[in-house]
Every structure is written in structure tokens, then in C-alpha cells.
Amino acid sequence: MNTSLGDEILVENLVKGDKYAFESIFKKYYAPLLAYGKQYVELADAQENVQDLMLWLWNNRENLYFSTSLKSYLFSAVRNRCLTAIKKEKTKASSFYELSQLTGFEQSGQDLYFEKELKEKIDRAISNLPDSFREAFELNRFEHLTYKEIALKLGVSPKTVDYRIQQALKILRKDLRNYLPLLVYFYPMLRL
């Protein structure tokens, strides 16, 4: 098999667990997707988004279905991931700005360090969630999809989505229990 095979054949083989098909898709699309992602976010963020997408593609290979072409799907997914990352940063910045306006609080270098450390702890806690819990949680909290929309996207029932999000919240509350009061101010969109 070579990388010039049609995308349909590559996807068919990927669904069957063919590592070479995945490798071919990766080689064919990684650089163009990275270049596309860099139009929205910094290089490191674009790399992370494309790598996460490729990892998602492999982890979900058995249930893949594209209503469009593979190429269209991948580029749309990278765009959506980049826009979600931008939205997260804007929401975070906006929340902090509003809080600082209400309290008259100005951030010092130490505060910036603490906020960065808090963000890293949150990101780590979210990334450590089981894939199905994390995906449902992120779609709801960061992409603002309803349970029904998530259920349609993931091919599961809304009750399954509810269960996954509730389990994600339970795990996050436990992992971030020492930071819960701060999360209300800095990350209200998490709704822990």
C-alpha cells in the first residue's frame, strides 16, 4: 500500500486496524493540517491540535464515519480544535478581566505564575480523564454543545452523554478539590 491510495481505501483499511493506512493518512495530511492550523494559532498549539486529532483518529478508528471526505473532515476538525483553543483563552482572559474589574485586583508576576500553574493542573486533570468522559466533557463545556448534540456526534444516547459528563465532573472535583474555590473565579465555564 502506498500513500497515494485513495482516502476511501485508506479509511476502510484504518477502520480494520491497519497501522499502515493510519501511517499513510498521517504522512499525507500532517504537514498540510499543521500549516492550516498555524493560520489560527501558534505553531506549538497547532502541533498539539493536529497530533490530538491524529490520536483521536486512531483511537476511534473502529467507529469512523465521515459524511464528507476524509480531507474535508480533517481540515474542519483542525479548524474547530483551533477555534476552541482560541475561545478557551478568550473566555479565561475575559473571566479574569471581569473579576479584576469587580475587585480592583491587579495581577502581579507571582499571580500570573500561579494562574499558569492552575491552568496546567486543570489541563492535566482533563487530559487524564478516560477518553469517552473527556470528549463528552470538552464538547459540552468548551464547544457548548447540548447533550443531544453530543449524543448525535458520538453516536450514543443522551443518557450516556449525561453519565460520561457526570463521571468526568466527579473525577475532576476529586482531582482538583484543593482548587475548587479558585476555579469558580478563573474558570467558571467548567461549572465544577
Provide key terms for this protein.
single chain, 192 residues, mainly alpha, Rna Polymerase Sigma Factor, Chain: A, Arc Repressor Mutant, subunit A, 9 helices
Textual characterization of the structure:
The protein is mainly α and 192 residues long. The chain folds into two domains: 1-86, Rna Polymerase Sigma Factor, Chain: A (Orthogonal Bundle); 107-192, Arc Repressor Mutant, subunit A (Orthogonal Bundle). The protein is built from nine helices and no strands. The protein has helices at 7-15, 19-37, 43-59, 70-103, 109-127, 131-141, 147-154, 158-175, 180-186. The termini are far apart. 18% of the residues are buried. The mean pLDDT is 81.
What fraction strand?
A: under 5%
- Shape, please? globular
What portion of residues is helical? over 70%
Ranges where pLDDT stays below 50 over 5 or more residues in a row are none
The topology string of helices and strands comes to HHHHHHHHH
Average pLDDT taken over every residue: 81
Using only C-alpha atoms, the radius of gyration works out to 19 Å
CATH level-two architecture of the largest domain: Orthogonal Bundle
Structural class: mainly alpha
Continuous helix count = 9
Distance between the termini: 48 Å
What's the CATH C level of the largest domain?
Mainly Alpha
Q: Major β-sheet, in short?
A: none
| CATH homologous superfamily identity of the largest domain | RNA polymerase sigma factor, region 2, helix turn helix motif
Q: How many strands appear in the DSSP assignment?
A: 0
Count of domains? 2
Write the CATH fold name of the largest domain. Rna Polymerase Sigma Factor, Chain: A
